[in-house]
Amino acid sequence: MKSSEATPVVAGSMPWYRDITAAQWRVLAAAWGVWVMDAVDFLAITFVLRDIASEFNVPLSTASLLLFATYGVRWIGGLMFGSLSDRIGRKIPLVITLVWFTGGAVLTGMSWSFVSLAVFRLLLGFGMAPGFSLGATMVAESWPERHRAIGIGILDTGWGLGAIGAAIAYDLVYPHFGWRGMFFVGVIPALLLVVFILLFVPESQAFRKGAKHVRVPLRDNPAVILFRRYPKRVGYLALLMLVLCFGSWPFQGLFPTYLKSLSFEPLTITWLTMTSAVGQVFGFFASGFIAERLGRRAGISAMLGAGALSVVALVYSVNYLLLAECFAFLSGFFLVGSSGIWGTILTENLPREVRASGVGFLYNIGVVGGGIAPYIVLSTVKAASMTIALGIAVFTIVAALAAIVILRSVRETKGMQLSEIDGGGH
User: Fold this and answer.
1) Which of 58, 134, 187, 213 is deepest in the core (most CB within 10 A)?
2) Domain with 71 in it: what CATH number?
């Protein structure tokens, strides 16, 4: 019989999904649900940037800075929540972040000025920071070693489902309640999810086993240990995440705005963005299997390359709806879907004592790049008299190539045990 290393997806003849216990599925369901709500509350604003710019009488490029306002503070929240999680556990901080970013979305819908709106987006960003990182940490520490990448890839499908939810809200809620109504759709689902997490989701088993090593005095905060012991690792992983996030957000952040600039009807915009979101769901799900088959670095590189080409084809085919639908699916599947491997790389490159702190910081320092990307693209488009389509295409291609180069410096972790990483192996 082959070893688990030789067959990373199957233990013996048993299908991989039968190797997952009910408790492990509940952990994934909780983390997945938080990521869905995170996506709904955040992506809603990408559909209404023009409405916000019009209501508060600001340029569209200035309105796009709201994405940066949300993403620009996430690294602080990720580091602080991650440090808290490394000391008290993963479960309660996950509940706190869910309540926090849901409240931030509600306040967004109640904004009375552009300044108040910016402040509420800052608050939302701070609270939503650990949504993915805590979930990825819980799944990595709860699921069997040989299925980690699959579990984290499935977790990331939540972002695609959230994107679908935001698109549906734009079609059903926006026409009747305007842009403000978009930010109230997540309240009831979030409350139900809080109850589920508190009653049915266990604490991370790896955290419980290592609690005596993790509960350290505040002077030895995990966030401090992260930078003191692993500065080089933090450096190249932070650069990688910045470039990866920057590369996906010209498409994710500006595609609805680009379609509006062409005077597409809301229903057409909904269909194209939903098709992309469906592609993301399939891409996230497939990403774990791709990472187990090709390895973490090669898997991301292959998906990025195919995704960047798909985005270029999409922005120049939007007037041919069937063709555009095809490329929208492929763009979501490959470009955005490649991020299903990001969490695996981060969790597998950091030891348990700083894992939540490190993933929280690195993932969210990366999204700063995503937050500033739409502003840079729109500013460049205006300064160089380019079309939005060309701006999206150029920045997506350049960032994908840069990320593929940086990935060559990142350690390949396919087949590694978390115990090797916890022991300090490099």
Assistant:
1) 134
2) 1.20.1250.20
